[in-house]
Amino acid sequence: MTKTIGKLGGQLGLLIMLLSGCSATTTIDEYRPTDQPIVLSGDEKVVILGRRDAGHYETDREFIECVSDEVTSGGIKVLPEQQFIDAIYPWFEPRTAPKGLPRLKRLIQQNNVKAKIDSLSIRYLVWLDGSTETTGKGGSMSCAIGPGGGGCFGFAQWDKLSVYEATVWDLDELVEKGKLRVDSEGTSYLIGVVAPIPLLTPVKNDACGSLGNQLKLFFSIK
Amino acid sequence: MKKIGGLILIVLLAGCSSSASVKITSSFPSVLSEPKPIDASILIEDSFATYVGTPNKNTTIDIGASQVNLLNSAFSGLFDNVDFVTSLDQVTAETDLIITPSVIEVQLSTPSDNYLNVFEVWIKYNLDIQAKDGALITNWFMPAYGKTPDSFMADKEKAIELATIIALRDAGAKLMLDFYRIPAINDWLSRQNINQESQSL
Questions:
Q1: Which end of chain B is more exposed for a tag (fewer CB within 10 A), N or C?
Q2: Is residue B5 scored above 80 in pLDDT?
Q3: What is the domain extent for residue B37?
């Protein structure tokens, strides 16, 4: 009896150790000139856009949708990214999107652009810029299949790092309302004991959840 | 049994084929712009309306109809009155500018070419811009570029289609942003005494 409990305890300990290795470490830095939330009134909406002007990476749409869903869950009205980009075409394409406030100010001076933004009731624009990358890999795994069956043996691990920055622009006052940066990192494992067992660390999901939750705190609804 | 095995092998090998034939059918949004008081005729030659790019021997990209659709929207954002014509005989006397677009080349870069996890497409356009008397104002080279976010698990044809759509959208953006910045067009405009305030982002 004692021997069985000891064996079970050992297995449980191993499982806990493995699962604890699958949690991401996430850090959030926030800058805003005031600790008061931005008050959204009536039909005012927020649009969350990904930066896509860098050559070697682009902020993926899946991440933008994930953050948008998080922010929407707080009761904040978020206009879908593609709907905004199409409505204001061609001024938010990778080639033409304003990279800074001076360019935004010049764009808003065009009466039809200002009118379109007003008609869509968009008050705040959130730029998301960043990516998730694999920073290191280790181990090896080999799989074989034969007439009598198949299986995988070995161990592989990889580290992922998500770095995203959010910048909030006020489209009415044409000022920057704040910045957020999230860094999330973690290691995933693949253990091959006949069947490959993945122990994945949801680095990007953690970054999305943390950034979305923090963005929700930026805004309050009147 | 052997026949079934052979069939499975053929199906698997066909899946590994590297040829791709893409036809772009998507529509493009209207442009948000303040057009200038200019009457323009856009001469769409048959070779442009039915253009099929062959960036390599295994790939064809049919962009003819979609690029006409895109230019229809983009030129309407640049000029107050736009006529799309198929021959010079159809150009009216009121026309200020006659523009003939053509495709010089379509280029494609796949992950096996660029060692990046993306598909890239370049479309190189030439706009032959003439005054109403037929005098050449300029030949404007207009490159457009599009790439996929990444190619992880992406079907090759779908990836090329996505990169091409992004390149076509980029062509529209480039046209809107840079047309009135072409020095020869700027000179022509100043001679016509046409307001040059807009389109100066």
A1: N
A2: no
A3: 19-192
